[in-house]
Design brief:
317 residues, 15 strands, 6-stranded mixed beta sheet, alpha+beta
Length: 317
């Protein structure tokens, strides 16, 4: 099978683009021209390069995590690779002295990066697909971006690392627990903020769901000042991001995360690929499109993001 680097010039050609979208409209004669873009494992075909670029832009709009994490493409490597992270260092060096930064050259944290498969299905009426005036490219791109974006965000938060990315809330490889508490109070949020080192607080954000955000909006200090600033939706000057995939403040949950999420790496392993499924939906006059992403996600530096964990069975009112 050709590597991604070898396929790239071919999938970027106008001919490949034309034959790919003809195939997506059900033209059987187009598939013979798509062999270099075929993924043998899944029977799918890589999107043309121009469509892949549009898809990635649409996915970034749909995905919460892709806005705050670090996104890396590692398309040309094997199934498993290693991600290495080390703390940067800058020091003043007197003339003629040894250079101390060399001492940290081997100071790496190494993480395994796998190639997990995420699938999504989109169905469309055959009448639309066959209509040459219907913009099938933009329609599929938007639908797949929405479906994949939601599934990704859920995994980047709650994934257990088994056949899927390792989420920030996972016990192993997830964010560090700053404190275990009974219920969320004003002081708990302050403590969580200061549990994160200043170097990570600089670009830090808060992550929680709507229900937790509502509870935090009501918290006041002893002088009656609200913790939450409504004018810009910040807590202690840091933006609050809300997502349905963060848990409620219930026993055993981790309802609030705070830190620099750029240390969560999203590693794309292969470009999105698609194949048409016509027989299964023929009686419904529909055509199905099955698409796959291959990716992994890991918090490379766990100390960069901290969470609080609820130990009480009584939720915060």
């Amino acid at each position: 099978m050709n590597t991604y680097a070898e396929r790239l010039p071919y999938t970027g050609s106008p001919e490949y683009d034309k034959h790919f979208w003809n195939a997506m409209r059900g033209s059987n004669g187009s598939y013979a021209e798509l062999t270099k873009g075929r993924n043998i494992e899944t029977g799918t075909y890589a999107m043309p390069n121009s469509a892949e670029n549009k898809y990635m832009a649409a996915l970034e709009k749909e995905s919460l995590f892709r806005k705050i994490a670090t996104v890396i493409k590692a398309y040309g490597n094997g199934y498993r690779i290693f991600a290495k992270d080390s703390k940067d260092l800058a020091q003043w060096v007197p003339e003629g002295d040894s250079i101390p930064v060399y001492d940290g050259l081997e100071d790496f944290t190494i993480s395994n990066v796998d190639s997990w498969k995420l699938a999504a299905m989109v169905k469309m009426d055959e009448a639309f697909v066959r209509d040459a005036s219907f913009d099938i490219e933009n329609y599929l791109i938007k639908r797949f971006a929405k479906n994949f974006g939601r599934a990704e965000d859920d995994a980047f938060i709650n994934g257990n690392g088994i056949e899927m990315p390792t989420g920030i809330l996972n016990e192993t490889g997830g964010a560090e627990v700053a404190a275990t508490i009974d219920n969320i109070g004003y002081d708990n949020v302050i403590d969580l903020y200061f549990s994160v080192k200043p170097e990570y607080r600089k670009n830090a954000v808060w992550l929680m769901n709507d229900k937790t955000a509502l509870a935090l909006r009501k918290l006041k200090d002893e002088a009656g000042n609200y913790l939450w600033r409504d004018s810009d939706d910040t807590i202690l000057g840091k933006k609050v991001i809300m997502t349905e995939f963060m848990p409620d403040a219930e026993s055993g949950s981790k309802p609030i995360a705070f830190g620099d999420f750029s240390y969560y790496w999203i590693i794309g392993r292969k470009p999105i690929s698609v194949r048409i499924i016509s027989e299964k939906f023929a009686t419904l006059d529909q055509i199905g499109y099955l698409a796959f992403e291959f990716l992994d996600g890991k918090l490379i530096r766990p100390e960069a993001v901290k969470v609080i964990q609820i130990i009480s069975a009584t939720p915060n009112a």
